[in-house]
Amino acid sequence: MSSEEKDIKEADLFKKVEEFLQVFKKGEEFTHELLKENERLRFKIVRLEEDLRNNRKQGDNSQVKLLKDAIAQLEEERNYLTNKFKVVESENKDFAARYVEVEEENNNLANLYVASYQLHSTLDIHEVLTIVVEIIINLIGAEKFSLMLLDEDINELVAAASEGIDKSDLANIKIGEGIIGDVAKTGESYFEKDLEKKRDELNEPLVCIPLMIKEHVIGVLVIYSLLIQKKGFNRVDYELFSMLAGHAATAIFSSRLYAQSERKLSTIQGFIELLSGKPKPK
């Protein structure tokens, strides 16, 4: 995603926030108007009731009927305004909740932008893996997870990084074997629907996200458990999973290619020096 596209996306988000604030403000103003009108009607009803009592004393039945009709009409108007007030109040709460959701999404996207910039700022595979681990902890809220990368020589997934669990405890996984191997084979994400059920964490993870370059799976992000304050996943989390998988896959793939090219270049240089009889500089 280019800087211009990111700026446009951020501008759209801020515009949506401003629109929500304007709607929220209008709703608040309309609520105040309803309260003032309700107070006016209450005062008018009191006046009419006083007139009714006075007319009863005078025995003017026709005037009493008129007053009763007026009171009934005012009562009906008041009930209408009360119901309208409840509707507006409910809409205000909905707009407030949506505003909070947009603000949270905006913050998460800003954080992901910073994280993606960090990912693509280095070609060192170890630094890339460290950054990915920090992103998963801070943005996703995972407690135990691993980053399994495909070793094409043996066609198995091998633990390249982990948190909350030692890499030595994570066995290699063959493509198509179990939940994790099936995700690597199909390229389709896996999400456990029942987060409360008892399960074997290592063999029955909560989430598996394939790391893909085009249609080629280069690894799988596996989440075994969440932090205690994280009770489940929302819409923003799924968007973060999707964006993180793309950025992490690209960064890891680029860093691995760079490392391979560096090794090949070093080998070629050594071979040239050997043929030319030049000793390697110490």
Could you list some keywords that capture this structure?
282 residues; Beta-Lactamase; 5 helices; 65% helix
Q: Count of helices?
A: 5
Order of strands in the sheet with the most strands? Answer: 3-2-1-6-5-4
Question: Using only CA atoms, what is the Rg?
Answer: 33 Å
Mind telling me which CATH architecture of the largest domain this is? 2-Layer Sandwich
Helix content: 55-70%
The overall number of domains is 2
Low-pLDDT windows of residues: none
How big a fraction of the residues is strand? 5-15%
Strand tally: 6
| Alpha-carbon distance between the two ends | 44 Å
CATH superfamily of the largest domain: GAF domain
Q: Average pLDDT, to the nearest integer?
A: 79
Structure description:
The mean pLDDT is 79. This protein folds into 2 domains: 3-107; 120-267, Beta-Lactamase, CATH 3.30.450. Strands 3-2-1-6-5-4 form a 6-stranded antiparallel β-sheet, sandwiched between helices. It is 65% helix and 14% strand. By secondary structure, the chain is of the alpha+beta class.
Secondary-structure topology with pairs:
Blueprint: H1 3-58, H2 61-119, H3 125-140, E1 142-151, E2 156-163, E3 173-174, H4 178-186, E4 190-191, E5 207-213, E6 216-226, H5 235-276
Antiparallel strand pairs: 1-2, 1-6, 2-3, 4-5, 5-6
Helix pairs in contact: 1-2, 2-3, 2-5, 3-5
